[in-house]
Amino acid sequence: MVSMTILAALAATTTVVQGHFTFVRIAHNGIWQHPTRYIRNKTAPFNETWFNQPGLGPYHGYNFPTEYVNLPESVRCGRDNMAHAADTEVLRVAAGDEIEFAHQRYEPEEWTDDMFYGCPEGRGTCHKYGMDINHPGPVMAFLSPVPKGVDVREYGGAGEWTKIYTLGFRYRKNETLKVDWLAYNWEKTPVPRFAFKIPPQTPSGQYLLRMDLIWAYSLAGGAQMYPSCAHIDVSGISTGQLPAGVQIPEIFSPDSPGMTLSWEMGNQYSVDANYSHPGGPLWDGEKLVPDKPVIGE
Ligand SMILES: [Cu+2]
Q1: How far is the CA of 262 from the centre of ligand 1 (A)?
Q2: Catalyses which reaction (predicted)?
Q3: From the CA of 124, how far away is ligand 1's center (Å)?
Q4: d(CA 74, CA 71)
């Protein structure tokens, strides 16, 4: 009985895992770190409800998405990340430094060096098959300052989060599929680079740096999230504070902006009225701005 259960789980995983990914690697000023170094790892398999996917049961592989109904800690930084927090190193950066992150679609037991080293164009991950991003949605990064008196290796992310990066979509007025998500390159190559600067105005201190792609669609509560969190220690010249942030998981509830789309937007035909990307406003280093796409002529 036990082996049959495992076989069934493996069979389900093999077919589904091709559709998922995890952000597993970070570069600092163009230097790629070893996979999962400075990034909290996840525990897999991990049993959590998978809302809207009852046929797949509670089993989750490493690359499976996180959903709003999962544990708050899972939504913040990936499943069971706190079990790996104490062992995760802290990356020292200066405010204004460049960060890039890269994804992996293969489960850790399948990882080989050629998926991470010697990649074309200095990329952080590569593989001759299946290194696309096959879910449409924005790629984003957030900072959460660690409370005073707490070390980042103990911090679960219950404080505020401020968005510092969004890679959204290009609007194509003359195409049938008008919403062209920039990260979504299924059957296109290559995947774009996910690179941005820690805002120069970021105050000194430790932070969780959360990276995610959110695939929202027209089924409320069904949005898939792919969160990973890095530990960073920022040295900056600003003595202020980050602007007021948002709470996770609350900002990713089904009725929050950008988390449930119309059928038309979910299928890329049009942009919903008053659409904003999920995760609250974007901090440009000076002020918070609405995180809305540019709908060109
Ligand atoms: Cu997927």
Answers
A1: 20
A2: [(1->4)-beta-D-glucosyl]n+m + reduced acceptor + O2 = 4-dehydro-beta-D-glucosyl-[(1->4)-beta-D-glucosyl]n-1 + [(1->4)-beta-D-glucosyl]m + acceptor + H2O
A3: 20
A4: 5
Q: How far is the CA of 141 from the centre of ligand 1 (A)?
A: 19
214-262 residue pLDDT tens: 999 999 988 999 999 999 999 998 888 899 999 999 999 999 999 999 9
d(CA 136, CA 128): 21
115-172 per-position pLDDT tens digit: 999 999 999 999 877 788 989 999 999 999 999 999 999 999 999 999 999 999 999 9
Which pLDDT belongs to residue 129? 74
Contacts of 262 (CB under 8 A, 6+ apart): 218, 270, 272
As a whole-number percent, the residues of the chain with pLDDT over 70 amount to 90
- Compute, in angstroms, the gap from residue 129 CA to the centroid of ligand 1: 16
Closest C-alpha among 72, 172, 189 to residue 130:
189
Residues 6+ apart with CB under 8 A from 215: 65, 135, 136, 137, 223, 224, 225
The total of other beta-carbon atoms located within 10 Å of residue 177's CB is: 12
What are 7-21's pLDDT values in tens digits?
Answer: 344 444 443 335 699
pLDDT at 3 over 70: no
In order, the DSSP letters of 167-195 are E-EEE-TTSSS-EEESS--TTSSSPPPEE
Burial 57-81 (b: 16+ CB within 10 A, else e): eebbbbbbbbbbbbeebbbbbbbbb
Based on the number of CB atoms within 10 Å of its own CB, is 129 exposed (0-12), middle (13-18) or buried (19 or more)? exposed
Quote the pLDDT of residue 211. Answer: 98
Fold designation for 2-289: Coagulation Factor XIII; Chain A, domain 1 (2.70.50)
Cβ pair 81, 71 in contact under 8 A: no
